[in-house]
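Re: your question about Type IV secretory system conjugative DNA transfer VirD4/TraG family protein

S., sorry for the slow reply, the queue was backed up all week. Below is exactly what I fed in.
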Amino acid sequence: MTASLFQSKTNVEQYADLWRDYWQTRWHRTPDWRETQRFNALLGASEARSEASPLVYDYPQGKRPFLGVLSMGEDGAPSQDAGVLEFPDAGHLLTIAPTRTGKGVSQIIPNLLFYAGSAFVIDIKGENYDITGEHRAQMFPGAKVIKFSPFEEQTDRYNPLDFVRTADDGGPTPDTFEDCRLLAEMLLPKTGKSKDEYWDLEARNILTSILMYVVCRNGYASDARTMRSVVDVLYVGDDEEDMTGIEREFVTMQVYAESINYRPLHALATAFLGHHEKVASSILSTCRAGMQIWLSDRLLSATDRSDFRFSDLKKSMCRPIEEDPAPTTIYVIIPPEYLNEYRSVLRMMTGLAAVELTRVGDWVEEPGWRRKPPCSVLFLLDEFPALGEMTPIANGLAYLAGYGVQLWPFAQSIGQLKSIYGEAWQNFPANAGATSFFGVNDPDTAAYVERLLGETSETLQHYYARGYYNAGSITDQTGQSSNTGSSSGSNSSNQYSSGFSTNRSDNNSSGTSSSRSRVTNLEHEADRINHRYTKWKIATAADVRALPEELQFVFIRNRRPILSTKLPHYQFELLEGLYSTWKRG
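Result:
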């Protein structure tokens, strides 16, 4: 098979049997479980193909998120219906896997190579852009790739103040205050300490005031409508004895707000000026500490104008056929050594992108344009917990799918989500239509996966015993045998029909059972047939942690659990030539 086979739909359909044979022979993997009932409790490839909304296909379709390979057949054997596992619904996804277990090579990169829709990518190291950027730009005529990488000279630029809706001349609209408030929340993350809650809130009030002031005084076309102007106001110097520089700026805001009759700006400016000097100084210090990275000239240069809008993620897919509708891909790159200091930039880009895609596009009434794209915009949020608490994303889990946005956060453990979102962490798996776990090595996550997997259905097992019994034995007992006389004897090896023994324990499984026995010969020597009803945990926490590195557990809403093989892009022969080398080594 070659890449040309993969790229020709006619050929891949013609060679369906070849595809299925490839998946079952090249990619079938199973853990070393002796109890076949455990395999049979999982969703098999044949059943996954036959559902009303299939999960398994002969080859990647490109219209829905790709998860891996499903080759499981009866008793864990390879299935003749093996194929690629894709998520067919519009819901969100979630992956929990520790660092260096293959999240990038097995899920992020394959989706960037397969997925024909637009994508927004948090790319901490720039690896995903280096490997997939060229391919994404050449997928279709009209496809566009955007790289926002403020630490590189070659970067596309984005002005966050373009997110704020104002009149053409800069005057406020009913949306201006809420947009500035959201932008301030993205720029100033919470410290997470309850004692700092007041200062965090007041610091965001200061920043909201300055943002409103800058955008309202300057129209969309003004060179002064930038984060550089925001920094100039926030870090203004003191040059008068009777009034500090920041006080002077806020008095000017007050006067300006009165002149345009804009109550939100006037109220916030007045509130700040009403604080006691020491309180005002502490609030200002908190705000400046959170905004310190914006003193970086390269960050200000990368945000002094917009080369793109987040709405392009939808708009490019909605163009008329004659204008080549095609995906747009946005990579946001911050080097890992600067991640802690610059996480607010990632927060800002991610939060603003998600919110802007909920707005009605300016193209929807244009003749020949689609109202919404044919497939969702996929948000690949690697190292999602590093962004801190993301209110637009956490809240958006409940409604963003309805706007054609699929969120796919990646975290190292459920403990990471708990530490940021508290009990609300459960909203992430609860609102995810598909969740995958692999490489699990912490007890909490392993125990959580064990509970999700549940148990096998109850199965009937048989074993035999031979012994000497008095004639007073009572037959057909359920639960335990009751005898009026005495008995002696020994059990034979307790063989199950599936080929394993019942008279031994195994730390890779657990089960519960009830038994029924019948004495078939009431003379001195008798055969006893015991019937035992047993159900097993599909996988214990120990099994979850011992899962081979090639495998993952996948949970898809309203389906049985799935044991799937991961598909690293560099091991998939049909992708050769479609991806580049990671240039950073």
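The radius of gyration is 31 Å. DSSP finds 21 helices and 17 strands in the chain.

Happy to talk it through on Thursday.
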